[in-house]
Specification:
Structural class: alpha/beta
CATH topology of one domain: Rossmann fold
Distance between the termini: 63 Å
Helix content: 40-55%
Radius of gyration: 31 Å
CATH superfamily of one domain: HAD superfamily/HAD-like
Strand content: 5-15%
Oligomer: single chain
Strand order of the largest sheet: 5-4-1-6-7
Number of helices: 36
Largest sheet: 5 strands, parallel
Number of strands: 22
Shape: elongated
């Protein structure tokens, strides 16, 4: 809404609705205010202590309905409403005390719509008279005080007509008749009314001959709210953050910019901007003056934090810290040997073994060139030869004394550079906040371990986290999590951790990662940066998404007070919109966001598209199943093959998450997949079978074994693609076999995996051929092609 839109119509008078137009509340729904009143009233002893805020809200809404019925009119005052609550008040409490409290709370939670405040100011400067019309139970004097307190003084408007006093409303057309009667010299067609209610502000204004402008957010916000309500039932109780103002700000965007700006403001904006605000406020509370967000996220985090610091007038400093997993990688070369190399390769599933060898100062011999470029997983899947297993052949190289000496020297040089760099940026004594996105905090935790007195000085802040954060906590490193206050927050963290690439790409795609550090001519340590990964149309899309985030942040600072207590948007509220998008994307979101690329940021090269051909092929079997909890099964797919399985599913079947409720069943862990596999086994074996799984205790195997035992099935053998994780003789009571032995057991083999089924099937066929045996019978979930093969 801008001034030219109104003045182009040459009005002689402009009238405005008040609440939800000129005045907004820092709440998602207007009725939420009554819960705040109930909480304050209970704390003050005004009401029965057993009356919870939610119950008080219901009672307050019922009191208003009864008051309107009692006076046989839609127009009542606040005193009449609170008189209906007298039975809920303490014996010595006058209903007027509760009414005064409600006014006090109302004044704290409202603010002037900054988008329309400038319009009011410009109309006043242009000499166009303004009248305010409100269907409201407040007295005009009380409403005028609220307006003035929010920055809309009487110099910006003329008359103020309130339905509770006038005895008529906009909804019955009476206030518009009154408006025309008090301005008889102005033709109705030269009056513009602006408001949010489709009946009272639009239909009735037009019925009176007045031109009306419907001032409401676009349909995008309504659709988002509906989806978030459906997802709340899956992850726990939560309510999304107030985004009405951000939605109003996007009404005039062009068609090409509308989606990324709206998505950035309404979905990503709360997650990013509210997180940055929370970090600053927590640091202020803990007297931490220096905040160090890690690059590349710091490109967006740092300016948002500085803006909030300036808004609140804090004495704090934000410094960007150029660090990454790749930049810290040389530190892990200290003490390198075969066991350490195996651990490093296991923690970095995309890192080829020969890349690690070269980083440690070694070279690949001609005899091992055929294995070059393979990851640990790919080495483990290679059949053994006369020279031994592929993984043992390459890991032996890391036990070479000369290599270990070179690696230790490289690690020490890197450590010296990093310590000097950290001292340059963070200083040497004062407390510091290390800010990252999520979810394990491994990079900031490495900094805390590296710095002298790091555990004392450093506090790590994360937007979300998963259970792995316990490693840092157990080491005595202090960690705070924006969405980690309850189980709902941790559930949202798991959703984001399963498919974090969209948020990460938006935050990091326009800037290159930190490859390492070097000393410049003056001896200072400076970062070595890669080229920004995003280019062309993707770069333009990311820039618009970031612009949307900044739009939300700008409006946040415009409406939150510069002094005093701020309204707390919780981590659960802030992350819910993004989690809902990841769980149940629309077709447009899947097409646009699924086309984003992502990089591993772990010392490996290459990028891939989120919903590429591999991802689509990986989710196709779930569509062909035609039944079962699709959402839960999708979350069980291997992330390396389907980074965002819900997006890929939606690309193939746009309405798949609007199907019957059983397809949306969301359950933590591997339960749905394991139960579906057990059901598939019924009638397909004589009760005895072998298990092929991946990941040991961290994989699906233990859950499947438990469900199979509950179904009284006989588990004859277990083999794991990651064999080093399941030493014999028993794994959860099941005999452990080498992967190479399984093909010769003459048992049906159930593939307890979704993402590795192809690899296990190929491995079994190769083992059978090598031993001159018939291929074993395979039982899978959603992969009949593998069973036939």
């Amino acid at each position: 809404m801008n001034l030219s839109t109104i003045l182009d119509r040459q009005p002689l008078l402009v009238s405005f609705d008040v609440f939800d137009t000129l005045l907004l509340r820092r709440l998602e729904q207007p009725g939420d205010l009554f819960e705040v009143v109930g909480e304050r009233a209970r704390a003050a002893g005004l009401i029965d202590p057993g009356l919870t805020p939610v119950l008080f809200r219901l009672a307050r809404e019922e009191a208003e309905r009864r008051a309107r019925t009692r006076v046989a009119s839609a127009e009542v005052g606040l005193a009449a409403i609170h008189a209906e609550l007298r039975h809920l008040l303490s014996e010595t409490v006058d209903p007027a005390m509760l009414a005064a409290l409600e006014l006090e709370v109302e004044a704290e939670w409202i603010f002037a719509n900054p988008l329309l405040l400038t319009v009011l100011q410009d109309l006043s400067a242009a000499g166009v008279p303004v009248v305010l019309l409100s269907d409201m139970y407040l007295e005009p004097a009380d409403l005028a005080r609220l307006l003035t307190g929010a920055g809309i003084g009487p110099e910006l408007y003329g008359r103020l007509h309130v339905s509770g006093v006038e005895g008529c409303s906009k909804r019955d057309g009476g206030l518009f008749r009154l408006l025309l009667a008090t301005h008889p010299g102005i033709p109705p067609g030269r009056i513009i009314h602006i408001g949010d209610d489709p009946l009272g502000d639009i239909a009735m204004a037009r019925a009176a001959g007045v031109e009306a402008i419907h001032y409401v957010p676009g349909p995008g916000l309504t659709r988002l709210r509906e989806r978030e309500r459906s997802v709340m039932g899956l992850v726990g109780e939560a309510s999304p953050p107030p985004r009405r103002l951000a939605a109003l700000a996007g009404q005039e965007d062009g068609a090409d910019e509308a989606f990324p700006l709206e998505f950035g403001a309404l979905v990503l904006g709360p997650a990013v901007a509210e997180y940055c605000r929370w970090v600053v406020e927590e640091c202020r509370r803990q007297n931490i003056r220096r905040i160090a967000p890690l690059m590349r996220e710091a490109v967006l985090f740092a300016p948002l934090m500085r803006d909030w610091i300036a808004h609140r007038g804090y004495d704090m400093e934000v410094v960007a810290l150029h660090l990454s997993r790749q930049a810290l990688m040389p530190l892990e070369l200290a003490g390198l040997d075969a066991a350490a190399a195996r651990r490093i390769l296991g923690e970095r599933p995309h890192l080829p073994w020969d890349r690690l060898l070269v980083q440690a100062g070694g070279t690949v011999s001609a005899a091992l060139l055929d294995l070059a470029g393979l990851t640990l997983e790919e080495l483990l899947a290679k059949p053994a030869t006369d020279g031994g297993s592929a993984v043992d052949r390459v890991l032996t190289l890391f036990d070479d004394p000369e290599l270990r000496f070179r690696a230790a020297r490289l690690a020490e040089e890197a450590r010296e550079r990093l310590l000097d760099y950290l001292a340059q940026v963070l200083g040497r004594e004062e407390p510091v906040a290390l800010v990252d996105l999520g979810a394990r905090g491994s990079t900031p935790a490495a900094v805390a371990r590296l710095l002298p007195e790091g555990r004392r000085r450093c506090r790590i802040f994360l937007a979300y986290a998963v259970a792995d954060i316990v490693a840092a906590l157990a080491d005595g490193i202090r960690v705070q999590i924006f969405a980690g206050q309850d189980r709902t927050g941790m559930a949202l963290g798991r959703v984001l951790y399963r498919s974090p690439q969209i948020l990460e790409r938006v935050l990091t795609g326009l800037d290159g990662t930190t490859l390492g550090h070097r000393r410049d001519a003056d001896g200072r340590v400076v970062p070595l940066l890669a080229q920004p990964p995003a280019a062309g149309e993707e770069r333009q899309l990311l820039a618009l998404l970031q612009q949307g985030i900044r739009r939300y942040a700008g409006l946040m600072t415009a409406v939150y007070p510069a002094r005093g207590e701020t309204v707390a948007v919780t981590g659960v509220q802030a992350l819910l919109p993004l989690a809902a998008t990841l769980l149940r994307p629309t077709g447009l979101e899947a097409d646009i966001l699924g086309g984003l690329a992502y990089d591993q940021n772990d010392g490996t090269d290459g990028e891939r598209i989120l919903c590429d051909a591999t991802a689509l092929a990986t989710v196709q079997p779930l569509i062909e199943m035609g039944e079962g909890p699709v959402l839960a099964l999708a979350l069980g797919l291997r992330p390396a093959l389907a980074p965002w399985p819900q997006g890929a599913l939606t690309r193939l079947v746009p309405g798949i998450f609007h199907q019957p409720a059983d397809r949306l069943g969301l359950e933590g862990g591997h339960g749905p997949v394991c139960r579906a596999l057990v059901e598939r086994l019924r009638g397909r074996t004589d009760g005895r079978f072998g298990i092929l799984a991946v990941g040991g205790d961290g994989g699906m195997g233990p859950d499947f074994i438990r469900y199979a035992r509950e179904a009284e099935l006989e588990l004859a053998a277990y083999a794991d693609l990651m064999g080093h994780l399941v030493p014999p003789p028993l794994f959860h009571g099941v005999p452990v076999r080498d992967m190479g032995e399984m093909a010769g057991l003459e048992l049906p083999l159930v593939l307890v995996t979704l993402g590795y089924a192809d690899r296990l099937a190929v491995l079994m066929r190769d083992q059978a051929v090598a031993g001159g045996l018939s291929p074993p019978r395979l039982i899978t979930l959603g992969r009949p092609d593998l069973e036939r093969a």
